[in-house]
Amino acid sequence: RGDSCCCCSMNGAGNLMDFLDEPFPDVSTYEDFHTIDWLREKSRDTDRHRKITSKSKESLWELIKSLLDAWSGWVVMLLIGLLSGTLAGVIDLAVDWMTDLKEGVCLSAFWYSHEQCCWTSNETTFDDRDKCPQWQKWAELMTGHAEGAGAYVLNYFLYILWALLFSFLAVSLVRVFAPYACGSGIPEIKTILSGFIIRGYLGKWTLLIKTVTLVLAVSSGLSLGKEGPLVHVACCCGNLFCSLFSKYSKNEGKRREVLSAAAAAGVSVAFGAPIGGVLFSLEEVSYYFPLKTLWRSFFAALVAAFTLRSINPFGNSRLVLFYVEYHTPWYMAELVPFILLGVFGGLWGTLFIRANIAWCRRRKTTQLGKYPVLEVIAVTGITALLAYPNPYTRRSTSELISELFNDCGALESSQLCDYVNNPNMSRPVDDIPDRPAGPGVYNALWQLTLALIFKIVITIFTFGMKIPSGLFIPSMAVGAIAGRIVGIAVEQMAYHHHDWIIFKNWCRPGADCVTPGLYAMVGAAACLGGVTRMTVSLVVIMFELTGGLEYIVPLMAAAVTSKWVADAFGKEGIYESHILLNGYPYLDVRDEFTHRTLATDVMRPRRNDPPLAVLTQDSTTVEDVETLIKDTDYNGFPVVVSRESERLIGFVQRRDLTLAIKNARQKQDGVVSSSVVYFTEDAPQLPASNPQPLKLRRILNLSPFTVTDHTPMETVVDIFRKLGLRQCLVTRRQKNKNKQTKNTYITHLDHLLRKKTSKKREQYNKQHNRDDLCEYNSKY
């Protein structure tokens, strides 16, 4: 019946065609920068599943198809884990090599990093473990001199040159091939998972360019990390594999379940923390997270972590990035400096968010935003120029954090471990007592202080540029530096003043009391929590990242304190702040609605605005519909019995209506501009002289969500949040009065939520005895 022509009978009654009885491509899909209807997508998936289940009883082949459909979700998770783990391993290896390439090259195999090059050398000594004949710096390779002012200046110049080259390639590739590959990606991922459509953001080109430019951006030495962008990369992998299965490619709600699991896999490979990845997706990223998605996220994170472990990019036979092994427990008195580090993390998070948002807003509203390449080159040049003289800023941020986390054992050669040793000490290697700091430690403290100031300032201007840029590692670096400084200070206080009452009970002379590396780990967690406002997932990621399961309580104390302090200055984390800055339609489930208004106070237009554009169920012509679509930009139209009764029948989407009429004109003979459009179940009998009618009941939503005009706005907001509605119709006495959309609430909240006194509302109702039809739609 779908595409055939129907002839008129002798009595003049035409057979009404319903060409949408058969599936029609693009109907029920969404346009770019629109929000999806979660209830509609859920209903469609339920109908699809019911159809597959009923067919599975008909034949063995249909039963096999139903089993394949049931297992398709696990297959997608397996593919996501394999690809995201592989890409993460390749990125880690490439970053290590290209970062070291700025300083020198391995003569035996140029594709080896510094560490890999010296692994293969038999001439490396313990004291000079970082030096081997196979690895040469550029000055030594070019001039034959490894030391001296000339060699230093040449290495300095080539370091800056390589950094500029890497950053220029990164920003150029992003600008030319994939503009969506810039930034962290997490604010956009959060918005997409809440139901917003951004075509191309998770596309193949974005995946390819983001992977390549992420390596270039991190290798350039800029104050950014790869962890946030890896979440974007993993979600691109999820979107890629969704296209292989119609179950996910044709249902935006099901697709977002896969993307939630992909985000978990991204964090899993970014930190080597599969459980933390699942909790991160649940706490920070996902908008809709059913129990089924929890199990699949766990499986995807497991496969991704296993794949990364098989590649072994860190070369330590461990999955975690910063494995530590402390030999001293923490004491209750140390909670005071841990909480102070939490306060510092909250203050740093507030400072960073406000300063970075102010800078990004300036970038968007001034001429600066028109020159992204020049901005990246300038920031890279300044970063490389200031970073090279300080050994703690010259090395990669991951190496810096790893050194700050490490405990000082007998085999450590870092400046941070340059303590004055007691020649009469006869203790095991793993139980070295607290010692007075040597000149190397004090020198390192000055360098770390300068590195802290440098990281705080330069990260503000780096995050948000038109290159892939993560925030996890820079934030952890700031906290780790501050924590290590505090840890050394507490250690020296405990050594020199062990008779003080705060140290007397737990720090005896000659004992190993304080572990400065633990303070660095707690500070890193505090600063990351202050910026992102994470709590549970942050603590789990940190102890998975370091293997420090014993130190959960200090991490929890610092994370909670950091969040409390940061929330005192503003509830939004860095990702929510960038969502607001970019104007994305995102309803945060954690926001509280405090206005005491009703649905009638919010719906638009007002008294002097045009009435709501509606369709009638049996008296609107094709020409009327096309004119309405042309003259308005609404997302959809309520369908009423007639303009006199205004009784609501259903709601039809603009896109479905446009495609349906276009398809009918192409495939159905007799449909002309004067053809009547019917949304009714049964068609009336028409004279033979009348043009062929068009039945569009199949695209009509017969159960749109409605509220009364006296529904409190707090309830309406909860409905939009928890049910994921795209629009909500406001009725009075079963008549359609208005329509609210999700974007109406978000975009125009400050303007629309105006209180009205009961007297004014009664006066308004008396003046409008007939239930007026009014509508508002945002540009989305």
From TrEMBL:
> What are the GO MF terms of this UniProt record?
antiporter activity; ATP binding; voltage-gated chloride channel activity
Pfam families given in the database record: CBS, Voltage_CLC
What keywords are assigned to this protein? Antiport, ATP-binding, CBS domain, Chloride, Endosome, Ion transport, Membrane, Nucleotide-binding, Repeat, Transmembrane, Transmembrane helix, Transport
- Has keyword Ribonucleoprotein? no
Transmembrane region(s): 71-95, 156-178, 198-218, 230-246, 258-282, 335-359, 371-388, 444-464, 471-490, 518-543
GO cellular component terms, A-Z? early endosome; endosome membrane; Golgi apparatus; plasma membrane; synaptic vesicle
**UniProt keyword annotation of Repeat present:** yes
Recorded hits in InterPro entries, A to Z, give: CBS_dom, CBS_dom_sf, Cl-channel_core, Cl_channel-4, ClC
Membrane topology per the record?
Answer: Multi-pass membrane protein
User: Which SMART domains does this UniProt record tie to the protein?
Assistant: CBS
Domain called CBS: residue spans: 603-667
Cellular location of this protein? Answer: Endosome membrane; Membrane
What PANTHER family does the record tag this protein with? CHLORIDE CHANNEL PROTEIN, H(+)_CL(-) EXCHANGE TRANSPORTER 4
Family the UniProt entry places it in: Belongs to the chloride channel (TC 2.A.49) family.
State what protein this is by name.
Answer: Chloride channel protein
Q: Which organism is it from?
A: Oreochromis niloticus (Nile tilapia)
Q: Which gene encodes it?
A: CLCN4
